[in-house]
Amino acid sequence: MSGWTVHDIPDQSGRVAVVTGANSGLGLVTATELARAGARVVLACRSETRGRAALNRLRDEVPDAEAEVRPLNLGDLGSVREFARALPYGRVDLLVNNAGVMALPHGTTADGFETQFGVNHLGHFALTGLLLPALLAAPEARVVTVSSMMHALANVDLRDLDSGRGYRRWVAYARSKSANLMFTHELARRAAAHGAGLTAAAAHPGYAATNLQTAGPRAEGRRAAERLMRLGNRIVAQSAEAGALPLLYAATAPAVRPDAFVGPSFAMWRGAPAPSWRAPWTLDDTMTERLWAASEDLTGVRYALPKAAS
User: Is 0.85 topped by the overall pTM?
Assistant: First the structure.
C-alpha cells in the first residue's frame, strides 16, 4: 500500500461504477480516475446542472470516457428509489457512497429525518439495498462508503437517531459517520454469512480541501466561520486529488479485505492510503445489527441477500 497512487489503479474496463456526490471534490476526482481506468461511470448528483458541468470537466480530463449523469437526492427516499429503478444496468460492479453533508444547522430531509443522519447514512443505506440485485449480479462487486476521522467524536445513539434530545451539529455529523462504518461492518458480516460475492469497505480522506467544510457556515450566513474554513483548506488541508486516494484504493486495490477502513497514512490526516484506526463501537456486532434493523424500518428497504449455502 505504501506510495500507492492513481497509476496503480487496475484496469476497470467493462466495469460499471456508481459514484454519489460526483459533481465536485472527492466524488468528481473518484469518478474521473475510474473513468480514466476504463470504467463506465454514473455520476449520481443532486443537481443535474452541477452534474452536467462536472461531466464536462471529467470529459476534458478523459475525452473518451464512458460517463453519464443521473439525478439522485439522498435526502429524499423517493428520489433514491427512482434512481435505482431507472438505472439501465443489470450489473453494478462498484458503488461509491461518497455524497454527504457536514455540520449543517438543524434540518430534516423530505422524509422527516435529521438531515445529516438522513443523507449521510439512511440515503446510502437505502441506495445500496435497492442496488443490491445489480451488485450481486457482478462477479466481484464492491461497496465503498465514505466515513470520516471525525466519527470518533460520537457513537450512534440508537434511542435518539434524529438527535431530538438536543441538536449539536458536530455530534450529529460524527454520529452519521459512525453509522457509515457500522453499516459497512454489518454489510460485510452479512455478505460473508450469506456467501455473497460482495466486498464492503470504507474509506476517509483525512482533511481534504472540498466544499464540504464551507457548506454549513454558508447556509447560516456565518461569514467569519466560512472564511476560516476556506483558510484551513488552503493552508492545512491536502488536495481533493490526494484525499480521494483512499477512496480509490478501497474501490479498486486487489488487497482490500471486507470491512477494511482506509485513510491517509500520516496521523489519519494526509498521505498515501493506509489502514485507518476506527472506534471500537463501529465493530460491535450487537450495535451494528440494531442500527441495521432500525435503518430497514426507517427506509422500508430490506436487503435481499442470497440464502447461505448449506
Answer: yes
Contact of 253 with 4, CB cutoff 8 Å: yes
DSSP the chain: -TT--GGGPPP-TT-EEEEETTTSHHHHHHHHHHHHTT-EEEEEES-HHHHHHHHHHHHHH-TT-EEEEEE--TT-HHHHHHHHHH---S--SEEEE-----SPPS-B-TTS-BHHHIIIIIIHHHHHHHHHHHHHTSTTEEEEEE--GGGGG----TT-TT-TT---HHHHHHHHHHHHHHHHHHHHHHHHHTT-SEEEEEE--SSB-STHHHHHHHHHT-HHHHHHHHHHHHHTPBPHHHHTHHHHHHHH-TTPPTT-EEEEEETTTEEEEEE----GGGG-HHHHHHHHHHHHHHH-----PPPPP-
| Cα–Cα distance, 43 to 65 (Å, whole number) | 12
Catalytic residue (one of 173, 207, 249, 303) = 173
89 has catalytic annotation? no
Burial (0-12, 13-18, 19+ Cβ within 10 Å), 290: middle
Other beta carbons less than 10 A from residue 132's beta carbon: 24
What does DSSP say about strands 66-71 and 40-45: parallel, antiparallel, or unpaired? parallel
pLDDT attached to residue 213: 44
C-alpha cell at 84: 435505482
pLDDT digits (tens, 9 = 90+) for 167-193: 999 999 999 999 999 999 999 999 999
